[in-house]
Amino acid sequence: MSSTPYTAYQPDETGAIPYSDADNAVWRDLVAQQLPNTAKYCARPYLDGFDRLDLPLDRVPQCAEVSAMLAPLTGWRVTPVPAVIGFERFFSMLANREFPAASFIRRREDFDYITEPDIFHEIFGHMPLLSDPRFAEFSHAIGKAGLKAEPKQFSWLIRLYWFSIEFGLTRENGAVKALGSGLASSPTELIYATQSTTPQRREFIISDIMRTPYRIDIHQPIYFVLDSIDDLFAAADRDLLADVRAAQSRGLFAPAYPPKQKAS
């Protein structure tokens, strides 16, 4: 995982993150900008989850209060972490029904697009789906598979999470809708993923997903579309490491994006 210019906020003696008025204003303005877009472009499970949680709109929520909302619904909790954690820790936390939340919030200059996960992405993007027991169980299954995986298998397994929970699409009443948390929290990529003719939208096939490279610093050139969300839930009962091994034996697809420019 890459480095980040952001520094994690540290909790005070009560366990709360002391967000500033400026931080709360960024949250408020992000929510105000994004809510009309999510209402128009996001899938029903995300919208139902957002309504279920009743998150504060005018300030950054504390992880403890979000955990208190999630616990009776799915048994999950949210824990503040630095912006970047390794795959092994990520899988371990998911297996323990614990979601890692980067504690900082983006700066104004990164308002519309940020490559790192911030607290807006973690809470506004991820928590609605984690309030649904079906999506929560899928994330749990990814974590359990990750605990059994070898390090060389991590990147193959994480692609399934990336192209579903983070950047997945689904069809509702004939329209393509955003399911992934990375889309729900992105003011620009949400509309791009669902409306633009530029990206490819491919059938949701697990073996293809695991073989598809991605970059975290650009809008995705490829998205995978679920015809039925039940297809995603069924993956929680699969032998995902067997899927990983099969994908490894066939190798990666050629990247659909240009190579990243090296700094001069």
Topology diagram in text:
Elements: H1 21-41, H2 44-53, H3 63-74, E1 77-81, H4 87-95, E2 98-102, H5 119-130, H6 133-148, H7 154-166, E3 169-172, E4 175-178, H8 181-184, H9 189-195, E5 200-203, H10 206-210, E6 222-226, H11 230-235, H12 240-250
Descriptors for this entry?
alpha/beta; Phenylalanine Hydroxylase; 10% strand
Shape: globular
Helical proportion? Answer: 40-55%
N- to C-terminal separation?
21 Å
User: Structural class, from secondary structure content?
Assistant: alpha/beta
Number of domains: 1
Radius of gyration: 18 Å
What would you say the CATH architecture is?
Answer: Orthogonal Bundle
Protein architecture, described:
This protein has one domain: Aromatic amino acid hydroxylase (Phenylalanine Hydroxylase), CATH 1.10.800. It is built from 12 helices and 6 strands. The model has no long low-confidence stretch (mean pLDDT 94). The protein is α/β, with parallel strands linked by helices. It has a 4-stranded mixed β-sheet. It has a two-stranded parallel sheet with strand order 1-2. Helix 4 (87-95) crosses helix 6. The longest helix has 21 residues, at 21-41.
What would a concise description of this structure say?
This protein has twelve helices and six strands. It is α/β, with parallel strands linked by helices and 264 residues long.
